[in-house]
Specification:
Strands 1, 2, 3, 5, 8, 9 and 10 form a 7-stranded mixed beta sheet that branches. The protein has one domain. Helix content is 10%, strand content 37%. The protein is globular and about 50 Å long. It is mostly beta strands and 230 residues long.
Length: 230
């Protein structure tokens, strides 16, 4: 099956590696029509990666074409959005979340691990980081919007995770060796907070130097949190 190449978080472009723009560091919150947008920190990216890659391909939220799988494994105050298969075309998913939830959006990114074959393979912290940097530098465009309002300067939201561990299941989306592996993720991630009860749309995606592209829209219904019994 086709390998899932990330992102996971709209007409704003990354420029090629030679310009150095995608090397920019993450910036502080940027206002949007509904809710606030900020750069995801490295811990959020680690948690996102451990969530996404814990599923076999047959039930992976990254292979989901409708949103039926978007609630799998979600817990706590963060809600993780997923990438799609490169070449899957425009994907639209419908999900419901509680008001007050922070949405982690993987605009566009890559991963490298000890379980995968080249060019996504690394053997230790240094080679994993180098592998992730090299592949993320080959991202050529990225875009994101919240409720129709574009997120500016996508390149400034680039972040690289530290090395983290996870267990890849049999039949995983990376076609990697099942079992314990180490991974680094590199790419543009944003968080969205303050979405009010009602209907919202988050769109994101981009292209890779190889010509692959992703284009994802989440139609998100935000519902008020249950009132605690007195």
């Amino acid at each position: 099956m086709s390998r899932l190449r990330l992102i996971p978080v709209v007409t704003l472009a990354f420029v090629l590696m030679a310009t150095g723009v995608f090397r920019a560091s993450a910036q502080d919150a940027t206002p949007t029509a509904e809710g606030g947008v900020a750069a995801a920190d490295a811990d959020a990216v680690v948690s996102w990666g451990q969530w996404l890659f814990s599923f076999p391909a047959a039930v992976s939220p990254g292979a989901d074409a409708t949103g039926a799988a978007c609630g799998l494994g979600q817990q706590g105050d963060a809600f993780y959005l997923a990438p799609s298969y490169v070449g899957a075309g425009a994907v639209t998913r419908a999900c419901t979340i509680l008001e007050g939830t922070t949405v982690v959006v993987p605009v566009i990114a890559v991963d490298c691990s000890t379980a995968e074959a080249d060019p996504f393979h690394g053997d230790d912290a240094e080679t994993l980081a180098t592998c992730a940097t090299t592949n993320a530098d080959a991202i050529t465009a990225g875009h994101a919007s919240i409720d129709g309002t574009d997120v500016g300067d996508i390149a400034s939201y680039r972040v690289q995770s530290p090395v983290f561990g996870l267990i890849l299941p049999d039949g995983n989306v990376l076609n990697g060796t099942p079992g314990a592996t180490s991974m680094v993720v590199d790419g543009a991630f944003i968080t969205v907070e303050g979405l009010t009860a009602g209907e919202h749309t988050i769109s994101y995606g981009g292209t890779y130097e190889s010509g692959g592209a992703i284009d994802i829209t989440y139609n998100i219904t935000v519902v008020a949190a249950p009132v605690a019994a007195s």
